[in-house]
Amino acid sequence: MAEHAIFEAGDVPLQSGLVLPAVRVVYCTHGRLNAARDNAIVYPTHYMGTHDSNAWAIGPGQALDPEKYFIIIPDMLGNGVSSSPSNTPAPFDGPRFPLVTVRDNVLLQHRLVTEIFGLTTLALVTGHSMGALQTFQWGALFPDMVQRIAPFCGAARVSRHNWLFLEGCKSALIAAGDFAGGDYTAPPVAGIRAFARVYAGWAWSQTFFRQQLDRERLGLPSMEDFLNWAWEPAFQACDANNLLAMLATWQAADISADPRFDGDLAKALAAISARAVVMPCRSDQYFPPEDSEIEVAHMQNAELRVIPSVWGHMAGGGLNPEDAMFINAALLALLAETV
Amino acid sequence: MAEHAIFEAGDVPLQSGLVLPAVRVVYCTHGRLNAARDNAIVYPTHYMGTHDSNAWAIGPGQALDPEKYFIIIPDMLGNGVSSSPSNTPAPFDGPRFPLVTVRDNVLLQHRLVTEIFGLTTLALVTGHSMGALQTFQWGALFPDMVQRIAPFCGAARVSRHNWLFLEGCKSALIAAGDFAGGDYTAPPVAGIRAFARVYAGWAWSQTFFRQQLDRERLGLPSMEDFLNWAWEPAFQACDANNLLAMLATWQAADISADPRFDGDLAKALAAISARAVVMPCRSDQYFPPEDSEIEVAHMQNAELRVIPSVWGHMAGGGLNPEDAMFINAALLALLAETV
């Protein structure tokens, strides 16, 4: 069903002013573009995710139905598939990979959908977590092109507390004995373990563990099982510099960092004209609903729909069927709206 | 006003089965014991705290009034003042310091107040955070002796999520290149920096930073100022093995880990007959009010009073006058009750 391909973007000027040479954006598509070219959906990836990580939300009968829509999943830079520290040659290899912003990613995605597919309209942009960061960015940068957005468990600008949680994760990895300033010759297993363990406390909610859903729903008898067998391997599968590159993208996320908005978040949010359904999770420790509520108040045509879940940030990850159904129902209703 | 002294406890059998030789408990007292010997208050220390850290809550006109009460502040083991990795000789020095539980601390404190001061009753036991862990433990171990307890920002048993947050902090320190398995020859500055930065995300709430109270109330213009100048120095002033010893005490906290209760937390809570006011902070990320609510429901004579603050766990640290006044008012009312 899904095909994937590479968009060779050439030498790309970044938001930072640097030029990253020979940039590649890997992407996959589900479904077919219709004759009117108006059934495309962009669904960017989340932290540590690749195009495959989004597959849970796509399928016949789901909102993201490949029989109706042409769904494009672009791999975020830094994820090890698109241009990343792990696959970029010197002088931008490893720890020398430059800051790539959410804006840089979305401008590349815009080139992809216009240059490769000739699109002038997108029915929907949606995404989880860092995918939601990219979703807000699409809405702010291309209001005339994006008909609908549905960011879930994300934000238009990383909050200062969210920055701080990420700074903790980063600090653990870069202080590790085997990280060697990013010029490791073997994977820094101890550093990644520390990173994963710091991260673990944030991903679910206090209530998730109080209700022992890690045991009952994830089937993991002990916290050590949870950490060692379920959680850490996903991090150990990543390159450490890639983890840090994506983290830097996340920490810098801010749709108002744009000459048009000059750091004014309210102004940037007000530029989003797409019909929007913003879905934070009630118990998300990184992107609490209070932040989303402020965002929605500044947007032109947005609705707040809080995912009523104790799964914290992971409510948007497709692991919990109830949360996946909540998101799917919201996307179905949104796509059915005439905008 | 305050005097401090050393209780030489001798060789102490620990809950783990090990015997820790020549244990010292440092303590300080405020005020005087009355003739009836019924005006004593025990106020144990919190993580990284010493007897001086509790001074903010003590003073004429405050609930903890040294003109009315004899206030004993015992230094928790591991805090660098009482027996700790940093001051214990081989074979229990540094990383070889054994697990000392909250129960071990409270049994030592019981010996202190009975052997040194001949007490048979305590008007109140109160404490913040790990001081609250010790407060619950006092209530469960010595129901006939303790008239009142007022734990704030703490719990009777560390929650599984709280354990996980601590595990993240610990992982960052032990993975650091300069920690050297605890046998460092100079302070592991990089490891402690990572530890502090991981910890920082947990201590306040998301809302505290959203409202920019770090800038407005702590007077710190940037997150880097907050981390480098306000937060990290307190951690760098600690010995790394001491940080880990206290953390191990915290992670193991469980009043039901006792032959009488056999791991049954409800049973252990039901053994607490003291009049109790349990004060979690609404926005505490380690000890959320939902946990306290469950505890209070099992206790004989307990009331839940939630600190209505966005200062998170730090609501109990005396930094915010409103929170300090809330706690003080609750202690005043509690001490005025005839029990």
In short:
The structure is a homodimer of 339-residue chains. The two termini of chain A are 29 Å apart.
Structure in words:
The structure is a homodimer of 339-residue chains. Chain A is α/β, with parallel strands linked by helices and 339 residues long. Chain A has 2 domains: 3-158 and 254-336, Rossmann fold (3-Layer(aba) Sandwich); 162-248, Rna Polymerase Sigma Factor, Chain: A (Orthogonal Bundle), CATH 1.10.1740. Chain A contains 11 helices and 8 strands. In chain A, strand 5, helix 2 (130-141) and strand 6 (148-152) form a beta-alpha-beta unit. The A-B interface holds A 159-165, 167-169, 171-172, 174-179, 190-191, 193-194, 197-202, 204-210, 212, 214, 223, 227, 285, 288, 290-291 and B 159-165, 167-169, 171-172, 174-179, 190-191, 193-194, 197-202, 204-210, 212, 214, 223, 227, 285, 288, 290-291.
List keywords for this structure.
alpha/beta, 2 domains, Rna Polymerase Sigma Factor, Chain: A, eight-stranded mixed β-sheet, 37% helix, globular, homodimer, 339 residues, Rossmann fold
Mean pLDDT of chain A: 97
What is the CATH topology descriptor of the largest domain in chain A? Rossmann fold
CA-based gyration radius of chain A: 19 Å
User: What is the chain-wise order of helices and strands of chain A?
Assistant: EEEEHEHEHHHHHHHEHEH
Number of strands of chain A: 8
Show unreliable segments of chain A: none
Strand order of the largest sheet of chain A: 1-2-4-3-5-6-7-8
Helix- and strand-based class of chain A?
A: alpha/beta
In terms of DSSP E residues, the strand content of chain A is 5-15%
Helicity level of chain A: 25-40%
Q: Count up the domains of chain A.
A: 2
Choose one word for the global shape of chain A: globular
> What assembly state would you assign to the polypeptide chains in this entry?
homodimer
The CATH homologous superfamily of the largest domain in chain A is called Alpha/Beta hydrolase fold, catalytic domain
Number of H- or I-type helical stretches of chain A: 11
The CA-CA distance between the termini of chain A, in Å, is 29 Å
CATH class of the largest domain in chain A: Alpha Beta
